[in-house]
Amino acid sequence: MIRENDLEALLTGDKSTAEDLFRRAREKCLAVKGPEVLVRALVEWSNVCRNDCLYCGIRRSRNVPRYTLGEEEILDCCTRAWNDGVRTFVLQGGENPAAALRLVPTVKKMRERWPGAAITLSLGELPFTTYALLREAGANRYLLRHESANPAHYASLHPAGMRLETRLACLQELRRLGYETGMGMMVGSPGQGVGHLLEDLRLMQAFQPDMIGIGPFIPQEGTPFADRPAGSAEMTLRLIAILRLMLPEANIPATTALATLLPEGKKAGILAGANVVMNVYTPENERAKYDLYKGKVNV
Ligand code: SAH
Question: Is the pLDDT reported for residue 156 higher than 90?
Fold first, then answer.
């Protein structure tokens, strides 16, 4: 268990506070989730996006060659992953409602071909009817980071018109449709303070997501936040550990952003209470174009 009053001390306390926190989280993870690390196949489906999020390397206004994988390419990626023993496919991409709708038959084929696999989507905010069609087609998990639980901070990270309220409504609807639902945020995003992180923790405690994605913010050239400092890997690890204690059953990946900032970051994440890694199965020729942030590693 974790007490509300302790949260700030756990985030800001000294090295020994952190070491103790990581140990407790590791023990909790072992007791609740067991000794296995779960592997997901990340297929970066498309970098075409209608949004202009200030932090993101595939934002609409950034000059980057665009691609969208076709059905055959997606099925090839999944086949490679399946043959490697991976049983969860994650299709992630920019927010593109028309193209997301065209994924419905692809998801149906994936479901027919691999009845026992988990199919996770991470395609941003879509019309509820599209979420429903994708769910009927066989998708069963959806990742949509809330990015910030504070409405003003959320607004400062996103273009006018994007609102926290909308994002939370999407998360509620995804849950209602029977998706296992994932949320999360970047650590050290511009303007974020410890108070914001406490709000993020409280929001997740209230929502009880099935999955939690947390990684450090990493600046990307050609975005409004290009010159902002990266987030802290250590703070990311503390948040992973706190969330493991707060939501023991959640699936929490040691993210690629963490591994990009910290050598052996995936291992550090697992030792702080994460139980999932996401391996990239995107075709080699497109990988470099899904450049959310600077120096993204493919481990
Ligand atoms: N379009 C989908 C997928 C977004 S990419 C969606 O909106 O959910 C997946 C995640 O990458 C985002 O949720 C964001 O938290 C993270 N991300 C984007 N830019 C980043 C950056 N510069 N540094 C670290 N993480 C970033």
Answer: yes
